[in-house]
Task: inverse folding
């Protein structure tokens, strides 16, 4: 269950990041307004993917936050070309650990 959840969170985070990155390209980098069409589709996908988790929405959002932090940092490294610091990697590890604790507790929570 944990690996499936992590994979789903990864795809969810990518959908959210792409859905926000495309309007950024439009607004800040002079991109085409047509970038908004796939941006909206990506954000709709993001919302739908969040509904696929079996836990209460608050737990899903809390756990997803950890996966988002790590994914955003990897995005920053490979898409934005920014070298990550040791603190970035440590922060990502802490966020993923927190996500794991919450996900493992899904079946045990009241």
Result:
């Amino acid at each position: 269950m944990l690996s499936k959840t992590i994979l789903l969170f990864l795809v969810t985070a990518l959908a959210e990041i792409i859905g926000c990155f495309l309007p950024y390209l439009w607004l800040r980098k002079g991109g085409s307004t047509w970038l908004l069409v796939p941006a909206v589709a990506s954000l709709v996908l993001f919302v739908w993917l969040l509904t696929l988790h079996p836990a209460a929405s608050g737990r899903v959002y809390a756990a997803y936050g950890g996966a988002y932090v790590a994914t955003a940092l990897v995005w920053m490294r490979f898409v934005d070309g920014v070298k990550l610091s040791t603190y970035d990697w440590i922060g990502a590890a802490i966020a993923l650990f927190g996500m794991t604790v919450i996900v493992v507790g899904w079946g045990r929570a009241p």
User: Anything to note?
Assistant: The chain has four helices and no strands. The longest helix spans residues 2-29. Residues 2-104 form one domain.
